[in-house]
Known about the structure:
The protein is an alpha/beta fold. The chain is 31% helix and 27% strand. It has 13 helices and 25 strands. The protein has helices at residues 22-31, 48-59, 86-89, 97-106, 125-133, 166-176, 192-203, 235-248, 259-271, 309-317, 338-343, 373-385, 405-410; strands at 3-7, 12-17, 38-42, 63-68, 71-75, 109-112, 136-140, 144-149, 158-160, 182-186, 207-209, 215-219, 227-230, 250-255, 275-278, 282-287, 291-292, 295-297, 319-320, 322-326, 347-351, 354-358, 367-369, 389-393, 415-419. The strands form 7 sheets. It has a 4-stranded mixed sheet with strand order 23-24-1-25. It has a 4-stranded mixed sheet with strand order 2-14-16-15, covered by helices on one side. A 4-stranded mixed sheet has the order 4-5-3-13, with helices on one face. The mean pLDDT is 97. Ligand EPZ binds at residues 22-23, 26, 93-94, 117, 122-127, 163, 165-168, 189, 306-307, 329-330, 373-374, 401.
Amino acid sequence: MAKYEIHGGTPLSGTVTISGAKNAAVAILPAALLVKGTCRIENVPDISDVRILLDILEGVGAKVSRPEPGVVEIDSSGPINTSPDEHLVKQMRASYYLMGALLGRFGKAHVALPGGCNFASRPIDQHIKGFEMLGADVIYTDAYVDLKPSEFGLQGNRINLDVVSVGATINIMIAASLIPGQTIIGNAAKEPHIVDLANFLNTMGARIYGAGTDTVKIRGVNALKGGTYAIIPDQIEAGTYLAAVAATGGNVLVQNVIPKHMECITTKLQEMGARIINYDDSIRIQSNGHLRYTTVKTRPYPGFPTDMQAQICVCMSRAAGFSRLTESVYETRFFGYCTELQSMGANIQINGKTATVIGVEKLYGATVEAHDLRAGAALVIAGLVAEGTTIVENVHFIERGYENLVDKFTGLGASIRRLED
Ligand code: EPZ
């Protein structure tokens, strides 16, 4: 298994360019199966989750090409198998979007349950509820989900989510795009990648309104045509680099971002003492590495993202005073990295949904293991801050969602290299 070797203590400087948003790409690529034609999708990040999804799409019969870096062309006009490869589906979380795409386009699907980062129990009952409300008969076992039209056929409906779920909002939006009638999703999630998916689908001829609010309306259409679409920049990747500079100190221009998407993160880093300058599509961050304590409660967008919990915790570990970090989406997310940070000298006390983080003078290099994507990214930041050498193991988790992380940090002056076992 590959690992990263990091020599900490160097402030970061220079410019880093953010890639396309992972959580938008993993929704848009399966959604291309709805289109009887060719979709040209730009700003696609070259990460393992994307590579697996493209293998899945090819496996069901789509024609996939990569004419240039960051660009994917998908032609789903030919025959498509509605039972995607089980082994590939199990390798990631977002493969469950194939359920909505295959149900919407072909009226049936047989999809193995997804895999992905297991930092918490991640049920899909809201997805299933949505498909049933759209008129599907669902067989849901501990191995797969099987979907086909009920005797009344598929029909738009009003679906109120019991929890604000990004995945369920996306899956229902994808399916409903080609299902006759109007579908209204109540208590919908509002993340930027949901808006990006809606914009992609509307570019291909869908009729989706209200994405980004808690009520999304979809009017099913007969067919979607091909077209071209560019994915938005990755809010969490950008937040990860901003948090790294805040913690290590330095002066970095983070480019290819949408500042509006970053507000929930940049305002927190400013509270902690970093200087933030917003431009049209970039953000400059300056920090002396001496941070102030703060309080963070993670919330669905536009709140502070749960996917930035681990990264801000590292900043708190170096902030003078007591910080409090409360998780509202995945209660057990702390356990993916806090033990590792404590082995590097961090002082973190977890009590249910809240961690109290007492700032320490130094973190010390150690050998630590990544247990999930964002926990792994946080351990990289901790290694960049720590005195001495840190080895981060199981970096395949990190490479699921961060394109060229080693090159990007090296470009900012960090001492980090990838070692194969
Ligand atoms: C998406 O996961 C992201 N993954 C996650 O990012 C992110 O942490 C999460 O949204 C929250 O923002 C992708 O987009 C591929 P949810 P998802 O459905 O869709 C409960 C990363 O690091 N819930 O919004 O699985 C669930 O247990 C990954 O990029 C149900 O109860 O998240 C959780 O408590 C990690 N039933 C809450 O809702 C359901 O059917 C939010 O989950 C679905 C969810």
